[in-house]
TrEMBL record:
Species assigned in the record: Streptomyces avidinii
Domain of life (superkingdom): Bacteria
Stretches assigned to the NADPH-dependent FMN reductase-like domain: 6-144
Organism lineage string: Bacteria, Bacillati, Actinomycetota, Actinomycetes, Kitasatosporales
Protein name per Swiss-Prot or TrEMBL: NAD(P)H-dependent FMN reductase
């Protein structure tokens, strides 16, 4: 059997009372029903990253970057803040620097009318600059369609969208994992 793809789910917002963990718990449960992936949650609220870019990180900051470095692929969970993504997320992407190289990134977004899709579209060129591949399929939640139990009201539709995203990420993740393993120049540079 192929080794499961290691995916880090990054919770991109950090503010008190944020909605992100509700979406993250649902996504984690969906991913947990699969045997072809292993998903861990990387929560920016726990990462203790400094407000400015520096290579001098706290032990928790270093552990966060190491967690990301150990993943084969990423799912970035982002809300929309003023038609873009949160500053906390940009800081984490910049700080983690080289971990993204030659790996795929998928998105789960949420927000008002646009469901966070404007944030997603602005994240794509950022990841391209970092030599990551962003995958086409996305999951997006418009106007917080979750019930009191923290489940999407359209449970089936949401789960189907998550499955399509994870399948897409799995294809790219396996292909790029193999390519990285076969590329001596890449491993020397990494
Ligand atoms: C500073 C700020 C700006 C926002 N701007 C937008 C926006 O441009 N479009 C939108 O659909 N929602 C916007 N929202 C609503 C957020 O997407 C929504 O509150 C979401 O829950 C924020 O994610 P969080 O709860 O994980 O922090 C904004 C929220 C904040 C705090």
């Amino acid at each position: 059997m192929t080794t499961p793809l290691r995916i880090a789910l990054i919770i991109g917002s950090t503010r008190e009372g944020r909605f992100g963990p509700t979406v993250a718990r649902w996504f984690e449960a969906v991913a947990g029903r699969r045997t072809d992936i292993e998903l861990t949650v990387a929560d920016l609220a726990d990462a203790d990253l400094p407000a400015h870019w520096t290579s001098d990180l706290s032990p928790r900051g270093r552990a966060f970057v190491e967690q990301l470095a150990g993943a084969d692929a990423y799912v970035v969970l982002t809300p929309e803040y003023n038609h873009s993504f949160p500053a906390s997320l940009k800081q984490a992407i910049d700080t983690a620097g080289r971990v993204w190289r030659r790996k795929p990134v998928g998105f789960v977004s949420y927000g008002g009318l646009s469901g966070g899709l404007r944030a997603v579209e602005q994240l794509r060129p950022v990841f391209a600059e970092l030599h990551a591949t962003t995958v086409r399929e996305t999951v997006s939640f418009h106007q917080f369609p979750f019930d009191e139990a923290g489940q999407p009201r359209d449970h089936e539709g949401a789960e189907q969208a998550a499955t399509v995203l994870l399948d897409d990420l799995l294809w790219w993740g396996r292909a790029l994992r193999t390519a990285r393993g076969n590329d001596e120049a890449w491993s020397e540079a990494a």
